[in-house]
Amino acid sequence: MPDLLPLRDEWFDNHPKPASKATYERHLRTFMDYCAARGIQDAEDLTDQVIMQYSPTLLDGYAGATINLKIVALKDFLGFLEDKDLISLKWSRLERQWKRLPRADRHQVQLDDHGIELMIAYCMHTVPADIIEARNFAFIVCLADTGLRVHEACKLNRGDMDWQELRGVIVGKRNKQAAFRISPRAARLTQRYLSRRAEQDGAQNIPLYRLPVFARHDDGAGKKILHMTPTTGRDITAQMVMRVLGEQADPQKPITPHKFRHFLIDRARREGGIMLAKGLARHDSIQTTEGYFHLEDEELDRGYREMFNH
Q: Which sequence spans correspond to the domains of the chain?
C-alpha cells in the first residue's frame, strides 16, 4: 500500500513547473493535513467520497482565489497518482463540485460580530503581562481595524508605517503597492508593544525601518528580531478566541484572522457605503467587495422600511 507522504515528495521533486513547485507544495499541505487528521495514509484510501468531503472544508477560512490554488494543486497531485495507477477517480463529478467552490466561499462565510467586538474590547482594556501579550493584543486590533490579510500584517516593517498620518504601505496581491489606514487605537497598542521592544530593536545590527512591526518572541528566534509567520498569526487568533470567548465561541461562526477583514469591510459598508468599503479593502472590483457583506434580516427590514418612510 503506497504511503502518501513519499508519493507527495516524489510528486514535488519531479514537478514539471519548477517556478510553481513551492506554491503547489504549500497549497497541497492543507489536503495532506486533512488526510493526516483522519488517519488517511495510503493512496488507495483516496476515494471520490474522501476528496468530496475535503473540498467543503475550504469554504470557511480561505478566499475564493486561495481555494482555487488549493484545488489546482490537489488536481495536479491526484493526476500524478492516477498516472501511476494508484487511484481511479470520477473526475466529472469532482469537477462539478470544484466549479461551485469560489461562489460558495462568498456566501457561506459566517461572521461573529459580537465575538470580534468582545475580543477588541478585551485587548483594549487589559494590561498586557509581558511583551508577547502586548504584541498579541496589538495584532488582534490591527487586524480588526486595518483589514490587512494575516500574511500582510506579518510582513509589515517599521518603515512601512507613518504613525503621524495613521497610514501604512504594503505590497499586496499581484505585487501591487497599496496604502492602508490604521485607527488611533490600533496605533496606540502597536506603539505600546514597540516601546517594550525598544531595547531589543536597538541591539540589532539592522536599520530600524527594516525591522518587523510584529516580531517573533520564541526560543527559536533568540535575541534576533524576526518577522512573525502567518501560522503564528492564526495561532494568536485561536488563543485569543479561547481566552476571551471560551465556551461562548460560536462553532458555526469560527473567528479566524480573515474574519477580521470581513468585519472591517462590512462595517465600512454599513457606515460609509460600498465605495468606502471597496477602498479600504483595496479591491479592484465592486463584485469582490460585495462578497464580504453580511446582511441580516433585521438590517434588510430596517432598510426596506426606510425606503417608504421619507
A: 4-108, 113-301
What is the CB-side half-sphere exposure of residue 234 using CA atoms within 13 A?
Answer: 9
Evaluate if residue 1 carries a pLDDT over 60.
Answer: no
8-state DSSP, 229: P
Alpha carbon distance, N-terminus to C-terminus of the chain? 72
Q: CB atoms < 10 A from the CB of 265, how many? A: 24
Instruction: Name the CATH code of domain 113-301 (choices 1.10.1370.40, 3.30.230.10, 1.10.443.10, 3.90.1150.10).
Output: 1.10.443.10
83 is written with which cell numbers? 498516472
Closest CA to 7 of 72, 84, 73: 84
CB 158 within 8 A of CB 211: yes
The structural architecture, per CATH, of the domain 4-108 is Orthogonal Bundle (1.10)
For residues 150-167, average pLDDT: 93
pLDDT single digits (tens) 191-225: 999 999 999 999 999 999 999 999 999 999 999 99
Separation between Cα atoms, residue 160 and residue 158, nearest integer Å: 5
State percent of the chain over pLDDT 90. 39
Cα separation, 146 vs 275, whole angstroms: 16
Is the pLDDT at 266 greater than 90? The verdict is: no
Question: 81, 123, 254: which is closest to 262 by C-alpha?
Answer: 254
Determine phi and psi for 100, rounding to 5 degrees. -90, -10
Residue type, 51: I
User: Does position 42 have pLDDT exceeding 50, yes or no?
Assistant: yes
